[in-house]
């Protein structure tokens, strides 16, 4: 079996504007993943530049930062077995033309520049991104053996 992990997801401004947050959350919950943090935020340029620092040499970097700051974002932390890998499958390919039907991007995305959702691409990047977007006390603990939040 898999390993318990956490991952960072963010519904981008186009996903929030199109009212797809509930559908996206429903898909992750339907896979048995646990939502342990969620907030609606207007993201600062400083946070966005740090979040996307690895892309700063790409020609689309400034446009990406402007786009992500153009409206509210729903930032989330999800927990579950192999959650990083499972999330990548649920989200689908970055380019909607390559995204399979049944994935979030395959079903709802229309252009690569507005692809609805960000998901961490590795356990290491998930740790970094969660620490950037959430304080430790904002993330709840979930105990699998219990039927309640701790």
Molecular structure report:
Helices cover about 35% and strands about 20% of the residues. The chain has helices spanning about 15, 20-30, 45-50, 60-70, 85-90, 105-110, 125-135, and strands at about 5-10, 35-40, 75-80, 115-120. By secondary structure, it is α+β, with helices and mostly antiparallel strands. It is globular. Strands 2-3-1-4 form a 4-stranded antiparallel β-sheet.
Average predicted local confidence, pLDDT: 92
What percent strand? 15-25%
Count of DSSP strands: 4
Order of helices and strands: EHHEHHEHHEH
Assembly classification: single chain
Radius of gyration, in Å, reads: 15 Å
Q: In percent, how helical is the residue content?
A: 25-40%
| Strand line-up in the sheet with most strands | 2-3-1-4
Question: SS-based structural class?
Answer: alpha+beta
List segments where confidence is low: pLDDT < 50 over at least 5 consecutive residues.
Answer: 145-150
Overall body shape: globular
| Total number of helices | 7
CA-CA gap between termini: 25 Å
* Main pleated sheet: 4 strands, antiparallel
Jot down its keywords.
alpha+beta; four-stranded antiparallel β-sheet; globular; disordered C terminus
